[in-house]
Specification:
This protein is an alpha/beta fold. It folds into four domains: 28-244, 3-Layer(aba) Sandwich (Rossmann fold), CATH 3.40.50; 248-346, Rossmann fold; 377-538, 3-Layer(aba) Sandwich (Rossmann fold); 553-615, Alpha-Beta Plaits, CATH 3.30.70. It contains 19 helices and 22 strands. The structure holds thiamine diphosphate. Residues 52-54, 102, 104-105, 108, 139, 394-397, 414, 439-442, 466, 468, 470-474 line the site of thiamine diphosphate (TPP).
Length: 619
Amino acid sequence: MTSQTRSQPLASDTGDGGSNPKTGQPEILPLMGNEAIARGAWEAGVKVTAAYPGTPSTEIMESLGKYPAQDLQAEWATNEKVALDVAIGASFAGARAMTSMKHVGLNVAADALMSQTYIGVNGGLVLVVCDDPGIHSSQNEQDTRIYGHLAMVPILEPADAQEALDFTRLAFDLSESFDTPVIVRGTTRLSHTRSLVQTGERVEKDSRGFDENPQKNVMIPGHARLRHSALFRREEQLKQYLEQSELIRWEPGSEPVGIVTLCTAYTYVKELLPQAHVLKLGASYPLPANRLREFCAAVERVIVIEELEPIVENEMKLMGLKVEGKSLFPREGEFSPDVIRAGLEQAGLLPASKPKPEPAVQAMPRPPLLCAGCPHTGAYMALRALNARVSGDIGCYTLAAVEPLKAIDTTVAMGSSIANATGMALAGSETRPIVATIGDSTFLHAGIPPLINAVYNRVNITVVLLDNHITAMTGGQDHPGTGRNLRGEAVHKVDYEALIRSIGITWIKKIDAYNMGNVFQYLREATLYPGVAVVIMDRPCVLDPVKIKGSPFRVDAEACTGCQTCMNLGCPALSWSDELFEGHHKVKIDEAACIGCSLCAQVSATNCIKPVEAFETHG
Ligand SMILES: Cc1ncc(C[n+]2csc(CCOP(=O)(O)OP(=O)(O)O)c2C)c(N)n1
């Protein structure tokens, strides 16, 4: 086996890299992993791209939307399955296509992937899936490599932004050469780390045209049986390719220990154990058995260092190879140099390090809160007052589950709230009013089928549609309810009221989320209605460019009794005063943070909160 050091950009038939497409000059750019993935796709001549936002993958589609529209189509889709199906359609039509998503997005898209893997591709088809080890911004921690195994599709594993570009570009070639969708797997650390990247030229790919081949394109049982066998042949061919490929790289060391590693863990290993032999895997499925055997035979001890699940370790063990792995490194959480160092120390490969001294000053813990003036606040305050049993959903509003609002009882996955509420109602044991709360983007993603189902099965629930006119949780992306597309063009805006009426709901009220009187009144009425009632809370997100910023509010310290009612909103602009007034603390408002939503003034029991102008004296 030949051994190499740091990789050059990998050879691909889509340009040899290195020059600015406009000037023809070589260009090195500081790119974030996600930007590099977008660049790799653009260089590969991708024509159609579609995605639904989700941290850490969101910026891939945001970057693609900045490339010229004559080069590529870039769209926000309503959910990840729709996005994958759009990309599949483009591949059928003979164009190169890509979709990107966070790890849980693949749960939504998996149904299409599991059939498409049988069909293969016409134009190259790439799925970029970004895992979130450490659960920085997700509802769970899952390893996409297991999906790769299940679908028997190759998984490429970039370790840095340069490889993110190179591997994405290569993925299209592999997809077409081996007639397979290809997964490029990222992680939060790869997605959001910026480094210098050698960029290349775009290569225009002529459409291959539609391939009229029903046996391959139409998955009925008779065809699927034949195509299933094709997967095993394809796996064999991919293994043979990887036996030779630069994607698998042996970096020789001076000590008899060998580390098999991949993704960002590779960079930590190189820093901490530069003297070890390293087998860097640029692909984690399928694995080239001969190269692994050769590596293991050349060293005395082999350790597999992989984030999350022991996928490579277990496969190597199945090959009869003696390796260590998860006995030294955790199976959960994000890897860091400290985590890898601890494992290498436990393995006796590094001397025990001294415990780190405690920092002299501890950072103040800051739990996440809804923003000052967040229009979701009032609904949850009212739902708590109504003693509702609330099934929540995924979005900024999930923060209403914690103190001080503490108004959400369950949260599962995107779009689960309405069907969860339906199940609670069918169980028949709940004495409180049952309410599902769901954001606008989440409603369009996966909330419509469960709403139809609730009407169809005649349950008694209230649905609160929290319409803040944006996908706030992931940074403010447009969706079909905002009336703008990814490129900022005006498009048809979904009419929620008409849509909801069309499925047979007659009790429906649209109200201003800042009008607390209406919020209390209509939520109460909705919960008393015997059937499916929908309340649409209508107010733009405070971070939306079209937000309404009124004049800030101030507390009249003399009138404040410290009753705490306003504090129950959890507004970050409200705090207790440091100084004591007549023996107790009063509420104060940070006027720079206050956006003038007036919710605190409306709920105040003592009428002590007023706009700042009310305090101004005129001489
Ligand atoms: C299957 C899946 N896709 C994407 C995400 C990422 N994500 C979390 S919440 C959310 C949408 C939030 O928007 P919305 O429902 O409008 O509520 P908001 O945050 O605006 O209050 C997204 C895209 C996810 N958690 N799961």
